[in-house]
Design goal:
This protein is of the alpha/beta class. It has a domain of about 170 residues: NAD(P)-binding Rossmann-like Domain (Rossmann fold), CATH 3.40.50. Helix content is about 45%, strand content about 15%. Strands 3-2-1-4-5-6-9 form a seven-stranded parallel β-sheet, sandwiched between helices. It has a two-stranded parallel ribbon with strand order 7-11.
């Protein structure tokens, strides 16, 4: 049996949909059963409880042979991820797929990437069979600001002329489903990206082309962007995490792409044009 964390979120949800398409049964950890209607429709077995509760984790891991770990960026994320790893290790024969990021390498400087590096190392030392899944810059980030893009015609991110590799979560979900249902991925770290290295200005031009309306990239000063995050209620640790990632992009942190995802899936992965066309109703 496969266990998913984060299944009501974007990445975990994409993995759940990919497993359901393959007809593979899975168990999903959810904190609120009322938010799991979509998972129920996919045939998921639900384990309702809190990831911070070790006794609950031990119960949820009963009968599990493969698990996928992804958590939202919260203040105690590292502690909860480490406890999940420890719970898997205590069970023994579990293969753990962990969602890290391509930018998480020794010497990285942002809050999130440093945390990923530490958890990757914790997994390697745990004795578990593992696969590190290391994507970058999800296209679905634009969905969160779709209303503003629709209203103003602007993509507002303080990334200057730094490049990103827009990567579709649906493709990533398919890759993770392969890792969870096939042998041969043990001990691997997969840096997976979309097919194009682009500035946000070039991304905006693709939006314009597909939507038939002008979309611009606006890169405000980081201090002004931080103030906006605080005004909408972001706690200080989260402001630091978000601005650290965006500042890293502006400084050239994301500077290459890989073809690995195309090779693993045996098909071309989605371009930003495909994403915009699929979700055009949100932006027009």
């Amino acid at each position: 049996m496969i266990l998913l964390t984060g299944a009501t979120g974007k990445t975990g949800g994409a993995v759940a949909e990919s497993l359901a398409k393959l007809g593979v049964p899975f168990r999903a950890i959810v904190r609120d059963q009322n938010k799991a209607a979509g998972l129920k429709s996919l045939g998921a077995e639900l384990a309702v409880g809190d990831l911070s509760d070790r006794a609950f984790l031990d119960q949820a891991l009963e009968g599990i042979t493969k698990a996928f770990l992804v958590l939202p960026n919260v203040e105690d994320q590292e502690a909860m991820e480490a406890q999940f790893v420890d719970a898997c290790a205590a069970k023994g024969d579990i293969h753990l797929a962990y969602l890290s990021s391509m930018e998480s390498i020794p010497g990285c400087t942002t809050t999130v990437t440093k945390m990923h590096v530490r958890i990757e190392e914790h997994i390697r030392k745990s004795g578990l069979s593992y696969t590190m899944i290391r994507p970058t810059f999800f296209m679905q980030l634009f969905i969160g600001s779709a209303a503003k893009i629709k209203e103003t015609g602007n993509i507002v991110m303080p990334t200057a002329d730094g490049t990103v590799v827009p990567t579709d979560i649906r493709d990533v979900g398919d890759v993770i489903a392969k890792v969870l249902t096939e042998d041969g991925h043990e001990g691997q770290s997969y840096d997976i990206t979309g097919p194009e290295l682009l500035t946000l200005g070039e991304v905006a031009a693709r939006f314009s082309k597909v939507l038939g309306k002008e979309i611009k990239h606006i890169s405000p000063p980081m201090s002004a962007y931080s103030d906006v995050l605080r005004k909408v209620g972001f706690p200080e640790w989260r402001v630091e995490a978000v601005t650290g990632e965006l500042g890293g992009i502006a400084a050239g942190m994301i500077d290459h792409k890989t073809d690995l995802m195309d090779e693993m899936l045996g098909r071309p992965t989605r371009k930003i044009d495909d994403f915009v066309a699929d979700y055009a109703h949100l932006f027009k």
